[in-house]
Amino acid sequence: MPTCAVAFDIDHTLAIDNKIERIALLRLLCRIDREGGTLLGTLDEETTAIDALLERQRAGACEIDEAVQRFVYDRGITDAGAYVADFRAIVLSLVDHIVVPLPGVPRMLRELRAAGIVTAVLSNGWSPLQQRKATRAGFDGPVLASADIGASKPDARAFAALVERLGVRGDCTWYVGDDPIADVAGARAAGLRAAWFNAEGQRYPDGVTPPDAEVKDVDGVLRLASLIEVR
Ligand SMILES: [Mg+2]
């Protein structure tokens, strides 16, 4: 059995996606307009509506396909199937152009690999988008997406799926992420060690389970990995 592991969130931990799904929905608006649908407002208003829809979807209100269907129905198009496929294709075509790894991430991943540390990604999102983002960040290990697991962080079932995939005890595993609730509190509640990735110098929110460690860059993650002890 491997002795230790480091697992990661993707967005704002390994890479920035620059609102790739918002861009794809804005591209769908052009098709909706062309095919007889009704836009709901100005471009600013549409962007605000898109952000609200995606925020609800990421919080677990629905799957991404359902969110896209709703987006299309709300603008007067009843046959949404082709739009859903179009949305997925647009997003995936944009990954290599828009998703940017955080500084030093590919090097950090190479160093973890060279040290024989088991790694994985657990991310709220859909396949294959999260896999493509991880690849773009230089990660070539297993990627678990919430849509495939059937549970989103901070749900303990998501972390249980991660621990099972890693094959490493939770207390020998660091989970690194930027979201205090989904990543830090979720990982700790599931028995993992939680590292808060705080590249932007934020203040940790009051009343949320604190992390076991705070790191501000990839070298901080590498230091964490060297500290894992086998109990
Ligand atoms: Mg994140």
What secondary-structure arrangement, pairings included, does this model have?
Layout: E1 5-8, E2 15-16, H1 20-34, H2 43-58, H3 64-73, H4 81-98, E3 100-101, H5 105-114, E4 118-123, H6 129-136, E5 143-145, H7 146-149, H8 156-166, E6 173-177, H9 180-189, E7 193-197, E8 213-215, H10 218-227
Parallel strand pairs: 1-4, 1-6, 4-5, 6-7, 7-8
Antiparallel strand pairs: 2-3
Magnesium ion (MG) binds at residues 9, 11-13, 177-179.
Fourth-tier CATH superfamily name of the largest domain: HAD superfamily/HAD-like
Chemical compounds bound to the protein: magnesium ion
Question: What fraction strand?
Answer: 5-15%
Low-confidence stretches: none
Output the number of helix runs. Answer: 10
What is the CATH fold-level name of the largest domain?
Answer: Rossmann fold
